[in-house]
Specification:
single chain, mainly alpha, dipeptide transmembrane transporter activity, MetI-like fold
């Protein structure tokens, strides 16, 4: 990728993050409920002076533009602020919960994207046949089933037939690798199914388009084996829309992971985010959304870099 294009992509990343920070900051303040009132609760000793004192102590007495400048300047220095409830640094709170979410999202992406390529190639190879129609119907079903519902169904089914299995909760990988994977495999499958269904259809469509190009007909005329035509000539060009959709689906994956975590009791960013919303914990909520957005934008930035690797014409 040329240096000029790389600078443009980096500038886009900065602009997106800045826009998200402003929108997040404003929308959170529009959520009904006051953080100070929630923190003080139903305490009979609450007085206007005490409310004003607490608002001043956590900086909520300042105008919103001042609050935003104070927060974003801290973010630029690497300081995400402190939790309103625990007083701990927000970075530490996020760091404690981000690894289960990242591991779950990565495992789901590996399963979904890894299986989508051979399945999409197979669907293109069997175009018009019974198996192609069956797999297309299966992909439609996979796209329409909500991940959280599938997760609930898997828990109910396995709890009836294999009640001894540990399906809920989370164990750090380095403490118990087998226990970690056994608890994450079900939520990963629930998240991966829609991704697998969507990407397999993309690969099938791109492969069918590639197989109709002149260079494929030329390769066949030269006697190149069909397997080599599929995986060397056609698949390379079909990977461009595939990579594009992987970047787009990352946003769905992060959002879906937050919901599926609640179903499987995984202590990831989903639990942290919902707790921050209920508590009106502004610094924690703002920073969590910003981190999730950063991961999504970073993945799409990496996708842009992969374009140049797959097809040098994209970066020219």
């Amino acid at each position: 990728m040329p240096l000029k294009l790389l600078r443009v992509r980096l500038m886009d990343l900065v602009i997106v993050l800045f826009g998200v920070s402003v929108i997040t900051f404003l929308l959170i303040r529009l959520v009904p409920g006051d953080a100070v009132a929630i923190m003080l609760g139903a305490n009979t000793e609450v007085t206007p002076d005490r409310i004003a004192e607490l608002r001043a102590r956590i900086g909520l007495d300042q105008p919103m533009p001042v609050q935003y400048v104070h927060w974003i300047s801290g973010v630029l220095r690497g300081d995400l602020g402190n939790s309103l409830w625990t007083g701990r640094p927000v970075a530490a709170e996020i760091g404690q919960h981000i690894w289960p979410t990242l591991q779950l999202a990565t495992l789901s992406l590996v399963l979904g994207a890894g299986l989508a390529v051979p399945l999409g190639v197979l669907m293109a190879r069997l175009r018009g046949g019974v198996w192609d129609s069956a797999m297309q119907m299966g992909s439609v079903v996979g796209l329409t089933i909500p991940s959280f519902w599938l997760g609930i169904m898997m828990i109910l089914t396995l709890s009836a037939f294999a009640p001894e299995l540990q399906m809920l909760g989370y164990v750090p990988f380095f403490e118990d690798p087998l226990g970690n994977l056994s608890r994450l495999v079900l939520p990963a499958v629930a998240l991966a199914l829609p991704i697998l269904a969507s990407l397999a259809r993309v690969v099938r469509s791109a492969m069918l388009d590639a197989l109709q190009q002149d260079y494929v007909r030329t390769a066949r005329a030269k006697g190149v084996p069909e397997r080599l035509i599929l995986f060397k000539h056609a698949l390379r060009n079909a990977l461009i829309p595939f990579v594009t959709n992987v970047g787009i689906l990352t946003g769905y994956l992060l959002g879906g992971a937050i919901v599926v975590e609640q179903v499987f009791a995984v202590p990831g960013l989903g639990r942290l985010l919902l707790g921050a919303i209920a508590e009106r914990n502004y610094p924690l909520l703002q920073a969590t959304i910003l981190v999730v957005t950063f991961v999504f934008v970073l993945v799409n930035f990496v996708v842009d870099l992969l374009y140049a690797f797959i097809d040098p014409r994209v970066g020219s």
